[in-house]
Amino acid sequence: MELLQPEDWPEALEARAAHPGALPLWGGTDVMVDLNFGRARPEAILDLTRVRELAEWERQDGMLRVGAGVSYTRAISELGDALPGLAAASRTVGSPQIRNRGTIGGNLGSSSPAGDALPPLYAAGAEIEIASTRGTRRVPIGEFITGPKRNVLEPDELIAAFHVPPAAGPQQFSKVGTRNAMVIAVCSFALALHPDERRVGTCIGSAGPTPIVAAEAEAFAAGMLDWDGGSPPAQADLARFGELVSAAASPIDDVRGSAAYRRHALGVPARRSLTWAWGDR
Ligand SMILES: Cc1cc2nc3c(=O)[nH]c(=O)nc-3n(C[C@H](O)[C@H](O)[C@H](O)COP(=O)(O)OP(=O)(O)OC[C@H]3O[C@@H](n4cnc5c(N)ncnc54)[C@H](O)[C@@H]3O)c2cc1C
Questions:
Q1: Neighbouring C-beta atoms of residue 132, cutoff 10 Å
Q2: What does the pLDDT read at residue 180?
Q3: From the CB of 33, is ligand 1 less than 6 Å away?
Q4: Which residue has its alpha carbon closest to ligand 1 atom 4?
Q5: Ligand 1 near 211 CB (within 6 A)
Q6: What is the mean pLDDT of residues 196-205?
Q7: Ligand 1 pocket member 181 (CB < 6 A)
Q8: Tens digit of pLDDT for each residue in 19-38?
Q9: Which of 67, 135, 237, 253 is deepest in the core (most CB within 10 A)?
Q10: pTM assigned to the model
């Protein structure tokens, strides 16, 4: 198997264009598992780890631009204030070793419905920056992921970065699993309050073919919350919010949990996240 090791971003894009069958790699925490289990046999590996531009993040026009090669560990330590939902999700990923190697760009590249970085990015309204030698385009995350482990990347394209507004209000992430660490989510839930716009962002993970925005629950919460007075939501309204989140899920039965359990379980983090976020604002 050929190993391509571009030294910078233009070289990486050239290599991608010249070898569309090559499999990009950063942390390798998904790629190496697929290679070891014989699930992937690419003609070449495109190792991006020398492309330092990918590991940078910056503030740009009031938004954050976070390179595809930023690890979970760095998201926690460097972006925790600006993106608390993503940082909370990052803390639940794997083990310290996986968080040191694994990247949010890799989570996007894998496009698994169970990817923990994805729900906070949906709830916050992230866009993915995609690049090739033909140019650059930005795609809302909800359009980037098209199905289980599928996305809109063309064979000559790479993920450059994601763009996301810094949190304008509290953000929460909850993950239901069979234990506290090293676990793939049975289901997960991300919530972002946008008090300036009187808007609530949500996303369900691991309970559908892609992460799912609970649009009805968002509209209900935005209308029900006491944005002016600040009084806490009534129990009945929290229960309704939980029901609407559960109803938005499209889960299946699998080894990690039944569809019925997932639907039931989702109502709990939904209610709690809204309570906690409202209390934090
Ligand atoms: C023990 C273990 C525990 C884990 N626990 C969790 C967990 O709790 N939660 C979770 O969500 N995941 C978990 N994972 C999965 C994995 O760690 C994550 O999906 C991680 O984000 C992958 O990042 P990476 O940099 O290692 O990606 P890689 O393995 O290098 O790549 C992943 C995919 O993205 C593509 N890719 C990478 N960079 C780019 C780019 N710039 N442009 C285009 N495509 C690109 C690759 O070709 C590949 O398809 C775990 C994995 C292991 C082995």
A1: 18
A2: 82
A3: yes
A4: 94
A5: no
A6: 97
A7: no
A8: 999 999 999 999 999 999 99
A9: 67
A10: 0.97
